[in-house]
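call fold(seq) -> tokens
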Amino acid sequence: MYDYAHGQSDSIEGVTHSLCSLEYEDHRPLYDWFLQAIGIYAPRQIEFARLNLSYTVLSKRKLIKLVREGVVNGWNDPRMPTLSGMRRRGYPPEAVVEFIERVGVSKNYSMVDIALLEAIVREHLNKSAPRVMGVLRPLKLVIDNYPEGQVEEMEAVNNPEDPAAGTRKLPFSKVLYIEQDDFRETPPPKYHRLSPGVEVRLRYAYFVTATSLVKNDLGEVVEVHCTYDPATRGGDAPDGRKVKATIHWVSAQHAISAEVRQYDRLFTRINPDDTEEDEDFMDYLNHDSLEVINGAMLEPGLVSAAPGSRWQFERVGYFAADAFDHRAEAPVFNRTVGLRDTWAKIEGAQKAAR
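ret:
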């Protein structure tokens, strides 16, 4: 009955090409026969392989199960492979179109690495997203020899890929926030960021050298003290000395607090559909696919970020202001994609193998 109704429905609606997945190829002779026997306009049925993405499912039946069982927060959850989910996550529509064009249409079943989609998204955002400073896990940095109460404005580039994007002013003061990962009391080998006695560059600002630290009752570092070299304003030393690391920061006095949502693969298995008889695709859910960070500190200009706007948090990744939950008084940013291009490594390894 499906084959009987399928062709007539397409004919009545004026469909020229009825596009179906490969399992309907065996149905095409009956589809054509009914149309010829009835003597009505006959569309052409064409079969092609469905798009399969690694670490996700595209079956509507399985996506509905994820929504109904509360695994995700609706159809527009940024982890969902839906257009509404991709939009909320911050994927530019042009990147999605380019991805589909690159993948193309095939008659063979294949699994497309989601890293390719992420690489294309990264390419588009690298050209279009303004750069800003965002510290996800803040650690207080106090510059002991910086004048008390002084505030300077540092000039920062909005997008080095787009000279027309211009520059912006960043407030700089005695007390800053840096990433917790950018300081180590006892640095491991090849760790070139801030540690006792080590000098680093604060992006767009000064060279600083860590001198002491403060710990809480648990022995955790909660505050780092340093000195700065006033002659290095802008990030370069007049005597030509070099540093091995540049780290980002925000002024504690001027920073805005935000919620940041970091998303990971929804499943732990490359192909969640590839299950044994006693298994279910839900067995391979990644229960750490969403990490909510409260109290991230962002540069003050982001207070005017519009819902849906896209940004690069320097040295961290690309983020989008959430289209539904983001408000000026309570900012919420979703991580779109990280800065590391894993697809480039995959592609490089494939070329090397050839």
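The radius of gyration is 26 Å.
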